[in-house]
Amino acid sequence: MRALVFADRQGAELAPLTENLPLALLPVVGKEVLVHGIEDLVGAGIRDLVIVVSAHGDQIESALGDGRRWGASFRFVLSRGEEDPGEIWQRLNLGDREPVLVLRGDVLRAPVVANFLEQAQGRPGTAVIGTLRDPRGSLVLLRAGAGTGTPPLGDLRWTASATPAPTEGAERLALGAVDLNLLAEIADYHGANRDIVAGRFHGIPLPGRTVALGLSVGRRASVPPKCLKQGVAFVGANSRVHPEAELIGEVVIGDDVVVDRGATIRDSVILSKTYVGELVEVANAVVASNLLIRVDTGAVLRISDAFLLANLAKGGATGALGRWLDRLAGLLLLILSLPLWPLAAFLAGREGGGGRLLEARDMEGDRREQPGDPLSPRRTVVLLNWRTRVPVLRHLPWLLAVVRGDLRLVGVSPLTPEQSAARDEDWQFVRDAAPVGLLGPTQLNVPADASIEERLLSDAFHARQSSWSRDLGIIWEALRMLFTPDAWRRPD
């Protein structure tokens, strides 16, 4: 059997969550909406899926792949978005040599496919429509040999149509009290997450493991059970909740989230890669990076203060292209700096009393122990310094690390392994979302003798604000500082 899955909703009703993300990929308690539907189909033995996508369809295809993750086979087809399902069926020409199950994958439905197929056996007609409390959540079984005409798919239209839905030859089968959430507005999305975590949406188990009564967590999540003051909560993979933060009521926290000291999350949904700052209180809301959406009023607040709410996914040119551009830029700067190396060697020999000209120190580099895993520990590298106190000369050998790819051109300041291990506040780990670089606000503007807390605070702010334009500004500032007296003056 094959399944035709419609995941082509535009999702304007869930804006701003769907401005840059298709509705089908919105996470609901650790899994995308469409993935919940896929698992229901695969659990019923259907592994050949044709998935209809529209805007941002490339994101859906990239996120799901070819289906091998589920032991299935996926084929993606493009629509204009929320088209008439019957018209799409005609374009696809799927044939009638095998039965096809047609349903929407951009609504949240309790597992029902296996039960529907079992009840549909022996029913007369060329099609069986399994009806739920809203027709858009229905399942339509088109039998083999049903013909190539227009099938009875009108129930699955997302938007109203003046064209009557053909039902000739179809039998309706009421599926009873199956939980269904159409995700037709922000309040529905907020409610779906809370219903699942509270056990009110039957048939969808919580992912992860239970670490305390009412508290479930994903892999490598760090959340002390005492943080759950009352109610139930789910904390996604790789997220960290400070021991002095409070979770109250029904709380869902996505992957890669940091909840800082003294923050309070009450009856809310925090989407992935979000930072919730110290003493921030979030109640009855959906939070996505620096957007706070109040469910009761529908108000959308964009928080500009990155120390309250911030997007941990933001960063500069962290992809492969950016890394290679960094290495080429580092090589160019290394060549341009060669006339300064004899001067650096001379001053190092004079200030070092005729001993070694270079000193080596173990520091964290930009590469990860597990390539591609942003939460894997950074590799320790050996960075060389000229033994001179002239700032512009001392770190010239770091250009070699940029050329090797051990450092980025722009990023947070490197830490020693001891400094990295000594961090114990959640905000101090925010810097890990950015690359480690030769240049950065901390390297350029924070005094060398400043406390480690001051340097980490500067790094954290850079990590939350990094962008291509900001990185270019830092490079320009560094070039400009070369011609200032402070760059050549030894610190007292």
In short:
This protein is an alpha/beta fold and 492 residues long. It contains 13 helices and 29 strands.
Using brief descriptors, characterize the structure shown.
about 500 residues, alpha/beta, Spore Coat Polysaccharide Biosynthesis Protein SpsA, Chain A, UDP N-Acetylglucosamine Acyltransferase, domain 1, 3 domains, 10-stranded mixed β-sheet, 7-stranded mixed β-sheet
Question: Secondary structure elements and their pairing?
Answer:
Elements: E1 2-6, E2 27-28, E3 31-32, H1 33-43, E4 48-53, H2 57-64, E5 73-78, H3 85-92, E6 100-104, E7 108-109, H4 113-120, E8 127-131, E9 139-142, E10 170-174, E11 180-181, H5 186-197, E12 209-212, E13 215-217, E14 228-235, E15 240-241, E16 246-253, E17 258-259, E18 264-266, E19 269-270, E20 274-276, E21 281-283, E22 285-288, E23 291-294, E24 300-302, E25 309-311, H6 320-337, H7 340-351, E26 358-368, E27 378-386, H8 391-394, H9 398-404, E28 408-410, H10 417-421, E29 437-439, H11 441-445, H12 452-465, H13 468-481
Parallel strand pairs: 1-4, 1-6, 4-5, 8-10, 13-14, 14-16, 15-17, 16-18, 16-19, 17-20, 18-21, 19-22, 28-29
Antiparallel strand pairs: 2-3, 6-9, 7-11, 8-9, 12-13, 20-25, 22-23, 23-24, 26-27
Helix pairs in contact: 6-9
